Each structure stands twice: as structure tokens, then as C-alpha cells.
Automatic annotation (TrEMBL):
Protein name: Polymerase/histidinol phosphatase N-terminal domain-containing protein
Keyword field: Signal
Superkingdom of the source species: Bacteria
Organism: Cohnella abietis
Transport listed as a keyword: no
UniProt xrefs under InterPro entries: Pol/His_phosphatase_N (IPR003141), Pol/histidinol_Pase-like (IPR016195)
Length: 499
């Protein structure tokens, strides 16, 4: 757009008027319009749920005989019934494997899933499993809905699950086997999604690693970035610290993280600013995080679990259909929350004109999971955070309030020279917000903040809490998880212009 102003050189009044008009016109051009509403909504879900087909085995027989309800307890229909009660729109069934479990999944679990879909048409019910990851701990495996989904899972489980072969094949429990599995999955017509479950649960202490390591995660993501998309940020088993009744003498630890404790219910890989998650993001990896129930049996019946959606939720901004939920999970349009502290979270990054004399078209705004490609060198970026703190009680009968929101930024410094690294020195909380710095409209809250002079490729992410903790503290044995609630967004990436 070009502006032309004609005036006589001696007409100061006309000059002032022209400059004023010019400035107003330019200001209107410098405010980018939001992307049009595409109809997507925040849909709550859970990708880690166990049914009666997470079983046990009679090892006196050859091959071992599968015994239903040996680990998971409930039929899938009961999980779905409760998931709907607690507001979920999508769910993934993820039963444990074992000797020849691929046959159990195909011949017993899958027909039940089809039956349950028919009984609950308003639930998007995905087929999957808790994959026995070669040379690592468990992972969620989500199969896109299709006419071939049963055969797809059977082929993956029977070929690559480290526990499926009988007789046992310990030689197949290798990193090479996992790489082969990911190569196979990414070549499928409809590739599945793999999410690393409870990444720090087997770590003997903070800074050490157990069955899951940063090096493995980088290798998996390098092999199949569209398949291996991230890890659980808030693991399941959050009711482990609650007593079933007053007769119990001890309480457990949240997430069953007995060695490296969770912090605010989140894995330390996520909860510690500058930790493993930030290390992965600082390489520019599209590595997302989620929250799950890992529900086997409810804590009131002697176990350590909540129902799906009762405490933890993973929200995906998607159309209410199978394909778009899978696509948006893959795209990282995700935030997580515990205790229904919030029910919506939109984060938007917008480029700001660096000079009033510039008419260059601004970059399209970016939202959670997206990328803002700056058009100006050293541009400012305005971040808008809008969340809904609902005027209703959660499953615990309380209505917790958000006390603080943090904006976190980190530089993207390129691929790590050492693949074992789990730290990002540039990642930090750039600003903290509370009721003094946000505006409120009913149960919606809005925060606006401008990042100045962005010259380096970066990412931003957001978290919030109902606590007074500046950083989430290590969770104590027996603490009440309902009093320690957090939400986390996935990142927005910012590509800086260098010339």
C-alpha cells in the first residue's frame, strides 16, 4: 500500500495534518487481523487408559495363558462412561502387552472397542496400546481410525513389542529394534502417533536417567518426527498420594515417582525451567507434552488412579472428528491441566511493526504449536494469553482460582552437540502475571505482553497455577493433589529475521 501526500512547501499546517492522517493510516495497517475462526474448539481427552485387557498370565502353561483383569480392571465401557461424566471428548485405549498379546488385542480387545464405539457415539474412541518400547519403558501408541486399524496394531505389536514374542526374544530388546519400529510406522499410509510415557519415573535421582534417556528421545524424534511427537508432562497415578479410607496408615507419592519426584504433579523434565523439555525445544524440535490418567483401577477401590478426566486433561484444539484430533495432536495444538483449573487456553504471538515508516506486510500470527515467521530484523512480538477459569466446581467439589501465569522463553540454538544433554541455559521465566496485570471478562482472563527486539530464533510457552510457588516444588509423600494445580501450554516457535 502506498500513501501520497501533496502539499505546498510553505504549508506547515497541511504538513502536520498530512502526517497525522499518515500516522493513523499506518497504525491501522500495523495491527494484523487474527486468523479467521476455523471452528476448532478445545476438546479434552486422555491417551493413556487401561481396561480388562491389560491382564496377567498363567506362566505354568506354554505359551502363557492370558488372564483378563490381571492388571487393568474395568471394561472399556465403564472408562468411557466416566470419561464422559468428567467432560472428555476423546479417549485412547492403551492396554499393556505381553506374550502373544497382539492376538489378544486383535481377537478380544478390538471387538470390544468396536462395540463400545457403537454404544457411545459421542466419544472419539481411538485404538492403541501401551507399547513395550524396545530398550526403554512404556510409550503410548495411537492408531488413526481406519478400516485397517486392527491389523495395523497387530502388525506393529507382533513385530516390534519387546514382550510379544514367545518364546522370549531378549535379543530384540535393542535400540536398533525401536528405530526399525519407527521407520516401519512412518512408512505406513496412515502413520500412528507415539508418545513417551512417564519419562522420569525410572530415573534414580534428578539429573540421572533410568530406562528412558535424552539420547534415545532425540534419536527417536530424528528417525520419525511425525510419529514420535513427545512425552507425558503430567503422568498418571496422581491419586497415589490419597488414602482409600482412614484405615490406611501410609500414602504414596504422586505419579508413583518414587525416586525422582514430580513437581506440581508434572514430570521434572517439564516442570524445571531449563530442563529436558526446554533442551529439546531449544533445538527447534516439535516435541509436545501431554497429561494422562494412566487409569487402571480407581483409588477408592484400593489402587492409585483417577478416572479418565477426573483430575488430568489433555486439551487439543480440533474439530470433533477422528482425523482432526490426530492431526492437531501431531501439530502440537495442545495444553494440559490438572484439577480443571482452566478449561481453555489460547496463546497468540504477533509481530509488531518495528518502524512507522515500514509498509511491509506483517507475519501471520501464530498460536500454540505454530510458528511465527518474523518479517523484520529485531522485531517486537506481542504475546496475548487468554484463559478461561470456569465458574464451576471440579470433580473434588471445589472451584480453584488461577493465582499466577508465567511466560517462559528460550533461544533455539541448534542441534545439541551432546545428545545426552538435558539442560537449556537460555530458557527462563521472562515475566510473571497475576490479577494486577490481567483483565477479566466474566470467567475469561486476558494478558498482553510485548517481547522486545527479537533477534534470535526462539520459542515461548506458558504455565499457570493456583499456588504461591514461584517454581513448582517437589511433591511430598501423601500431599493432596487437589491443592497443587498447574496448567502448561505447548510452545509457539519464533523464527527471527537475520538480514
Amino acid at each position: 500500500m502506498k500513501h501520497f501526500v501533496t502539499m505546498k512547501s510553505n504549508s506547515i499546517g497541511m504538513l502536520a495534518t498530512a502526517i497525522a492522517i499518515f500516522s493513523v493510516s499506518l497504525a491501522s495497517c500495523s495491527q494484523p487481523m487474527d486468523s479467521p475462526d476455523d471452528g476448532r474448539k478445545w476438546l479434552a481427552g486422555d491417551h493413556h487408559v487401561h481396561t480388562e485387557f491389560s491382564g496377567g498370565y498363567d506362566t505354568k502353561l506354554d505359551p502363557p495363558a492370558f488372564i483378563a483383569t490381571g492388571d487393568g480392571t474395568y471394561p472399556l465401557s465403564l472408562h468411557v462412561e466416566n470419561a464422559q461424566k468428567f467432560g472428555l471428548k476423546w479417549l485412547v485405549t492403551t492396554d499393556h502387552g505381553g506374550p502373544l498379546h497382539s492376538i489378544v488385542n486383535r481377537d478380544q480387545a478390538y471387538p470390544k472397542l468396536v462395540e463400545t464405539r457403537a454404544a457411545f457415539p459421542n466419544m472419539l474412541l481411538f485404538y492403541g496400546m501401551e507399547f513395550d518400547t524396545p530398550q526403554a519403558d512404556h510409550s503410548t501408541l495411537i492408531i488413526p481410525k481406519s478400516n485397517e486399524e486392527a491389523q495395523t496394531l497387530f502388525d506393529i505389536e507382533s513385530r516390534f513389542s519387546k514382550l510379544d514374542p514367545w518364546p522370549e526374544d531378549k535379543a530384540g530388546d535393542t535400540e536398533e529394534k525401536m528405530i526399525a519400529a519407527l521407520e516401519y510406522m512412518k512408512a505406513l499410509p496412515e502413520p500412528p502417533i507415539v508418545i513417551k510415557n512417564h519419562p522420569s519415573r525410572t530415573a534414580p535421582k534428578l539429573g540421572a536417567w533410568g530406562q528412558d534417556t535424552p539420547k534415545e528421545m532425540r534419536s527417536w524424534n530424528d528417525t520419525a518426527p511425525g510419529v514420535m511427537i513427545g512425552f507425558e508432562g503430567a503422568p498418571g497415578h496422581q491419586a497415589a498420594s490419597l488414602q482409600e479410607d482412614s484405615s490406611q496408615s501410609t500414602k504414596g507419592v504422586r505419579g508413583a515417582y518414587h525416586y525422582t519426584k514430580t513437581r506440581g504433579g508434572y514430570d521434572p523434565a517439564v516442570a524445571i525451567v531449563g530442563g529436558l523439555w526446554d533442551s529439546l525445544l531449544s533445538e527447534g524440535r516439535r516435541w509436545w507434552m501431554t497429561a494422562t490418567s494412566d487409569s487402571h483401577t480407581h483409588y477408592t477401590e484400593g489402587n492409585i488412579d483417577f478416572w479418565p478426566g477426573e483430575y488430568s486433561k489433555t486439551y487439543v484444539k480440533a474439530h470433533e472428528d477422528y482425523k482432526d484430533v490426530i492431526d492437531q495432536l501431531r501439530n502440537g495444538a495442545i495444553f494440559t491441566v490438572t484439577g480443571d483449573l482452566i478449561t481453555e487456553l489460547d496463546v497468540t504471538a504477533r509481530e509488531v511493526k518495528s518502524s512507522w515508516l515500514s509498509f511491509k506486510k506483517l507475519a501471520k500470527p501464530a498460536s500454540i504449536g505454530g510458528t511465527l515467521n518474523l518479517t523484520g530484523k529485531g522485531a517486537d512480538v506481542t504475546v496475548t494469553i487468554r484463559f478461561r477459569d470456569p465458574l464451576s466446581n471440579n470433580a473434588n467439589g471445589a472451584n480453584p482460582q488461577v493465582k499466577r501465569v508465567d511466560l517462559i522463553i528460550g533461544e533455539i540454538t541448534g542441534k545439541a552437540a551432546d545428545p545426552t544433554t538435558a539442560s537449556s541455559p537460555t530458557s527462563k521465566v521472562v515475566e510473571r502475571f497475576d490479577e494486577r496485570t490481567w483483565s477479566q471478562d466474566d470467567d475469561y482472563f486476558t494478558i498482553t505482553y510485548t517481547l522486545k527486539d527479537i533477534k534470535s530464533n526462539s520459542y515461548i510457552r506458558v504455565r499457570g497455577t493456583n499456588t504461591d510457588e514461584l517454581e513448582p516444588e517437589e511433591d511430598a509423600k501423601g500431599e493432596d493433589p487437589w491443592h497443587d494445580l498447574w496448567f502448561y501450554s505447548n510452545p509457539i516457535f519464533i523464527e527471527a529475521k537475520h538480514k
